[in-house]
Structures are given as structure tokens and as C-alpha cells.
Amino acid sequence: MYMARCLELAQNGQGNVAPNPMVGALIVHDNQIIGEGYHIKHGDAHAEINAINSVKDKSLLKKSTLYLSLEPCSHFGKTPPCTDTIIAMEIPRIVIASMDVNPKVMGRGIELLRKAGREVVVGVMEEEALDLNRRFITYHTKKRPYIILKWAQTLDGFIDAIRKPDDPIAPVWITNELSRSLVHRWRSEEQAILIGTRTVEKDNPKLNVRDWSGRTPTRVIIDRKLRLPIEFNVFDGSIPTLLLIGNNAAASVHKPKFAAIPNLEIITIDFAKGMEFQLLKELYDRNLNSIMIEGGAMIINSFVEKNLWDEARVFVGNKFFYDGVKAPTFNGEFYSYNELGNSKLFTYRNKQSA
User: Fold this and answer.
1) Could you give the 3-state DSSP secondary structure of residue 115?
2) Residues 6+ away with beta carbon under 8 Å from 273
3) What pLDDT is stored for residue 32 in this prediction?
4) pLDDT at residue number 166
5) What is the number of other CB atoms lying within 10 angstroms of the CB of residue 350?
6) pLDDT for residue 76
7) Is-contact 223 200, C-beta < 8 A?
8) Residues facing 343 on adjacent strands
């Protein structure tokens, strides 16, 4: 019961603590919760410190149990080691859901607590805790961001309609407004969002968070030949944006115009060596531990073919196109199903991702 509450508290940090993990903490004395806390924002105090600070009578800590959804840190980062504070406050018993996979910790926090004579229990609701921090875990174990594929398709399996040259540059909506609001919430929870050249050309998206309250992720645009006009919304300079171009485009006459855009970083990669792995390394090197790939079909299929995806969120709208761009096909384990008005949402997980 107490650990379930820790995990519930931890979720409050979604979208605000990355690249750190989400962590919840609870302090119990005589079967009464006397303190709670969670990691609120990256760089701020950690969950256990917030929980300790919330306890009015600090003398009770010496006779209490501290519940943590993740092993406490044992190193100096943006904050001092939490293990030092736990030991100093003489908390006798600590119950931990899962070990920290960060190489700077990885059991050292638990070891220090035990060496200080504290009783430490590990593994309570471990599976749930690991799932909560799957982005953080993927980042440290696979050395790449957690990859979420997202698209909407029609009842007859198309992701886009046939576009004529004189069609307006705007999205062809498949789902309803409720589904689109949910996508904006998802954007606020991830650190990066990716689309390709054709999606920019056809839809001219802003790729920001509008229908939800939260932080906008880093935009990642693939434009191999640097052919996109500078007037598109993704180049408005309002959001940190990474523009990936090919070696042959590096000397383009248009490059100086892009270089003058605020918040825009141009990255040159060798597309012949595999765009996907180079892109993921660039994101990893920038401490971006999750990315949502919103399209188009060519980009999504390229990641599916290399088995570079962890989660797929597929909307099915109440429409037929009869012809158009086929939706991606993939092999994944069904995870959940939801109905949002006349739209349906299917979520899949990839247990064997690269």
C-alpha cells in the first residue's frame, strides 16, 4: 500500500524531471504517513529530501520507515547525495522498489545505508517501478532514448490521403479533438519529437504543446537535402530544434539562413551509414532520454525495420480514405486499449527492441 502511494507520487514528476528518473517517497511512523515527497523538477531537491522536509516532528524520523520508489543517490550531482541525509536523520528502515541503473549509483546507495547499520528492503513492487522509469532505464542500459512511435490511421489502414500539388499545406485530420489534446499531453511528457521532410512540407506543423499545460520537447527535423523553406513553423526559433542534414547538403547556399535562426542547431550526418543510429547518438549525447516519432510513414517504417522502437501508440479514427499512404506494419505486444469518443487508441510494447 505504501509503495503504491510512492509510485503514485512519483508520477507527478512526469515531464519535469527528465533526464532524471521519477521518484516518490513516503515516511511512515506507527502505521501513519507523516511525510510525503516526490522529485518535482530537474535540478531541485529529490523525493526523499522533500519527504523528510515535510515531516513536522523530525524526532519521529528515528523510529520511522522510509519508502522509496528508487534507490537513493550516493553521488554529488545538482544536489548532494540523498543517502547522506537519510543516514544523518537516523532513519532506521528503508524500503526500496528498484535499484538505480545509473552507473554512478547502481547499488552504492543501498550499500552505504547498510554499512551505516540501516535495515534495507529492496524489490517491493519492483516491476511497476521499473516500468514507470522505462525511459530512464532504456537511456542508461541501451545508451539511447526511449522511442515512442505515434500515428493515426483510418479504418481501412491509411495514415494519409492522396495529396495533390494544389492541396493546402495543412494536416488531414483522422481523429477527433480529444485525441489531439492527448497527443499534446504526451508531447509535454517527452524530451524530443521527430518528423521528416515530407511531413513538414505537407502539414507545416508547429510541434509544440498548445492543448495542454507543460514543457515543449526539443523538435528534431530530418531534411537530408536541406530543401525545406525557412518560412515553415518548425523554424520559427521559439523552441530548441535540431535539424539533421546530409553531407551533400552541408555546403548548401541556404545553410547560412538557417544558421541565423535562434534555438536551431544544424547537425550533419552520413545518411549512407544509417540515419537512425546517428540520430539516437546525438540525442543520447544531449541527455535527451525519450523521443516521440510522429511521422511520416517513411520515418516510422525506417525505425520499425531496424527494430528501434519501444512503444507504439496507434489511433484509429472513424474514417475511410480508400486510398493513400499505408499505415506502418509492425510486430509488437498488445498493451492497452482506450476509446476517445469515436476514435480508438491501441498501445503496443516492444519487448525485444534493439
Assistant:
1) helix
2) none
3) 97
4) 82
5) 19
6) 74
7) yes
8) 340
Rounded Cα distance between 290 and 282, Å, is: 12
Give the three cell numbers for residue 199: 511531413
* Residue in the block written with cell 535495515: 119
Question: C-alpha grid cell for residue 229?
Answer: 523553406
Label residue 180 exposed, middle or buried (CB < 10 Å: 0-12, 13-18, 19+). Answer: middle
**Rounded distance between C-alpha atoms, residue 69 and residue 11, angstroms:** 11
Query: In the structure grid, which three cell numbers stand for residue 277, read together?
Result: 543510429
Burial class (CB in 10 A: 0-12, 13-18, 19+), 269: buried
63, three cell numbers? 523510529
Cell 528515528 appears where? 62
d(CA 349, CA 330): 11
Q: Is the peptide bond before 19 cis (omega within 30 degrees of 0)?
A: yes
- Sheet harboring 65-68: ordered strands across? 32-38, 24-29, 65-68, 93-96, 119-122
**Whole-number pLDDT of residue 251:** 67
Which residues in the chain land under pLDDT 50? Answer: none
Q: Which of 48, 71, 189, 311 is catalytic?
A: 48
Give the C-alpha separation, 276 to 147, whole Å. 11
Whether 231 is a known active-site residue: answer: no
Q: Which long-range contacts (CB under 8 A, 24 or more apart) does 171-174 make?
A: 171/202, 171/203, 171/205, 173/317, 174/315, 174/317, 174/319
pLDDT at res. 205: 95
- 3-state DSSP percent of the chain in helix, strand and coil, to 5: 30, 25, 45
Structure confidence at residue 236 (pLDDT): 96
Cα 98 to chain center, whole Å? Answer: 19
The CA-based angle 91-95-101, given to 5 degrees, is 115
CA atoms 59, 62, 115, 105: torsion sign: negative
